[in-house]
Amino acid sequence: MDGRPEPVLGPAFGRTRGPTTTEGAAPSAGELAAERLKLAQAAYETGRAAQNALERVRWLDRAHRLLPADPTLCLALADACIGRDNARAERLLRRLSAHDVREVWLALAAARAGLGDPEGAAGALACALSRHAFSPRLAPFAEAVARAAGAPGWCALSPEGGLLWGPAGLVPTLRVDDGPEQPARPGLTEAMRGAARLALADQGRALLGSPLEPR
C-alpha cells in the first residue's frame, strides 16, 4: 500500500553480543540499542528497495527481528508477506490491530481474503471503512470483500467527509444519528455536519462499514 510513513523505530529489547569498545569494555546497553537501530534501518531500506519479492521479505524479516516491537517494521513485513504467506501476514497484522491504523485494517482484510476467510476479511475492512477516510481506488477491493461476505455493498467517508458507497447502482438509505431514514446522497450534506453516527442500509441490510463514525 502506498503512502506508508517511514518507520519510527522503537527501543531495542534485551542484549546481544556485539563489538567491544576501544578500551576493551563491553558496549553499553545504549550502544547496543543504537547499533541495532542502525542495522534495522539499513535492512528496512534494503527491503523496501528490493525488486525481488523473496529478497524483500528476507530483508524486512531481518529488520523486524532486530526491532520486533516496532509497528512500522512489522507492518512492512506483513505487507510483503501478503500473497506469499498470508497466515504469517495475518498473525503480524492481528498484533498491530490495536493501533487502529487504516493501512493495518486494509492489509489484514487482504490477508484474510487470501486465506479464504471472507467474514474475517469483511470484519477487518469494516474497521477501515467505518473509522478512516477511504480512497476511491480501493472500491474494487471493497466490493469484492463485501460480495464474498454476503453484504449488499460497502460504504465509507471520503477525506473531505462525504459519503461514498458501492457497487454502482446501489441506492441506500441513510440514518443520521437517531434521525429518520432518508435517501442517501453522495458527498457531504448539511444534515451530516456534526453527526457522530451515519448508518447506511439497503432494504434494511447494513452496508459493510456501517455505521460510519465521522468524528
Topology summary:
Layout lengths: L28 H21 L3 H14 L4 H11 L4 H11 L5 H13 L3 H14 L7 H10 L5 E4 L5 E4 L6 E4 L4 E3 L14 E5 L2 E2 L9
Antiparallel strand pairs: 1-2, 3-4, 3-5, 5-6
Helix pairs in contact: 1-2, 2-3, 3-4, 4-5, 5-6, 6-7
Structural description of this entry:
- This protein folds into two domains: 1-18 and 27-116, Serine Threonine Protein Phosphatase 5, Tetratricopeptide repeat, CATH 1.25.40; 133-215, no CATH class.
- The model is unreliable at 1-22 (pLDDT under 50).
- The protein is elongated and about 75 Å long.
- The strands form two sheets. A four-stranded antiparallel beta sheet has the order 4-3-5-6, with no helix packed on it. A two-stranded antiparallel ribbon has the order 1-2.
- It contains seven helices and six strands; from the N terminus they run αααααααββββββ.
- Helix 1 runs antiparallel to helix 2 (53-66), helix 2 (53-66) packs antiparallel against helix 3 and helix 4 packs antiparallel against helix 5 (102-114).
- The longest helix is centred in the first third of the chain and has 21 residues, at 29-49.
- Helices cover 44% and strands 10% of the residues.
- It has 215 residues and is α+β, with helices and mostly antiparallel strands.
